[in-house]
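Two proteins follow. First one:
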Amino acid sequence: MVSFLLLFLINQGEFSISPLYFDIKAPAGARRKVIINVVNETYTERIKILVQRADVIENYEGVYKPVELGKGAPSCANWLKFKDSIIELGPQSGKEIEVFVEIPTGIKGGRYGALTFTTQPTKEEMKYKTKIPVYFEVTIQPEIKPRISIEDIKIVEDIKKIPRFMFYNLKDAIAVLVSVKNEGDIHAKIKGNLILRDKRGRKIKEIPLGAGRGVVLPNTTVEIASIIKRLEPGEYTVDAIVRYGTLNPAKASANFTITKKKIEKKEMLLGGTILLSVKPEFVEMPTPPGAFRIKTILLENEEDSEIRVKAEIKELINDLEGELYSPDTFGYQYSAINFIQLEEKEFVLKPKERKTIKLKFNIPKEENSGGRYASLILNASKEGSPLPITYQIPIFINFIGKAKEEIKVEKIEVTGKAPVNFYIYLENLGDIHLKPKGTISINQRLITGAGEQVIKIGEYELKELKGYLLPKGKVKMFAEGPSRLKSGRYFIKVIINYGKDKELIFEKEFNL
């Protein structure tokens, strides 16, 4: 769960709420409890707050807004149960609000809602009301898959015409805006990349696309952006790739020309959707050294037209969130691409046809420890779809009985005060993939007349990785700390659990 905290300064005082987002996964019929912390930050004034349910919409910039019940995304607002609709807080006091999320039976997909906290000044005070929403994203298990498509790519020369960038002082820069639509029944967590190519198709650079939480609600279109330095006059192609946790990322491509006076978009190619079933979606194979193995992948064309498929084996690595992807580069030390042969690399599937493709594994005898990694890439296209749709199937080869499990903390970043956010950077020093989990405990040391005193602030869980930490790979794990910390001297203790009952302890002092 990713959470953010906003502080509101209002006439009758300052109050804070944490967290502002809950990401809940549970089966239909389940009941879950969460805690919302509300704190009156003033030293002299008492405040009264009204708590109400609301629905949620998401605007084009990816920002949530509370709306009246019945006017938002598929709603869970009426599932949110709490005791008191009025909260009164004295100066420098706080309260934990218990909220129960009661999910009905017979439900699937995603549901969304909010609780709004609104100040209630008296008529005599003549003060403005301030409303703070806390958002709930509920995923019903078993999860269904989102469906993401790219609708448009825009190249904008005058960045100040874009509202979110109008106050940025950006010179010699252009914006690439990509419109992304969620056509599914559940929210999608997206992560994008832009690849710039020259007129010959050669790659110039690859940059991240978009920022923030990257969540798109069902039946919602958002616009994600990247700012790049203005290119020299010439003809270019920009490829937009948006990953959202499925085998096939959304893709689109646009050709544009830059002159000294203007930027002109010439043509755009959209990937669309292709109904191709791929099973399994993940291949994991224990093996001894020197073994020969065959694995099969079952494809089914669910379209009413032919699908042309091109298959290849590529390398597999992880990004900082632990998400697995296939880079354009080669030379990964723990690659398995030289061990795998494809029986067929190009074929056509007739409407409703099923086909099995074989992966042949020839494992060298000298390879005998840890894991080796690759991915099967399937590029599928059909008539009327100008861009192929790419499916990625990760392949893990695990050598039986021998592996080096070792991890280290590279660094810790501490940002903010309300709340305090912790970023733990880990590196896998072993030769096998890992899925680390962990906690952070925080203590404050105070110097008093009686000597040094240690005060325990709390213990917080690290957010789970999306995928895996591969050998020699690095990840950034996140934990949201307390809703507010005062300036002072603190000590944190990080405990990372990984592999087969292994534990790493790392301690650090920091000052706020």
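Second one, unrelated to the first:
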Amino acid sequence: MKFEVNFEDQYNEFLANISNMYYNENKTQSEIAKEFNTTRFKVAKYLQEARDKNIVNIEINHPEIRLSSLEKKFKEQFGLKEAIILKVNNNDASEYAQTLGKTAADYIQTILNDDSIVGLTWGKTLYHAIK
């Protein structure tokens, strides 16, 4: 049986370990550098390389942003009691449906009481509101 050591796999594991220490364990680059007997500049380089190799993926979840001033104008213009207008920063239809569904669910919870009767249809947005 032949045992081979793949340097690339070991190096990627090293990048993953450094990334875990920085992003999950909240260690500073200086602390990591000290532990690996290197400089914090090299640690920064390793962290960037981990991102470049998709070992680390950073996802920023922007909150749904309501456009309050536009909601107010809409209510005044059309004589509405309520209006909810969202700013959606993504053209992905699925993500749009999820955002709209969650916002609808949050709103519905504020207006329903125990003896409310609700009629529903079906669609992707409603699916996300119920989910």
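SUMMARY FIELD: DSSP finds six helices and two strands in the chain. The longest strand covers residues 65-66.
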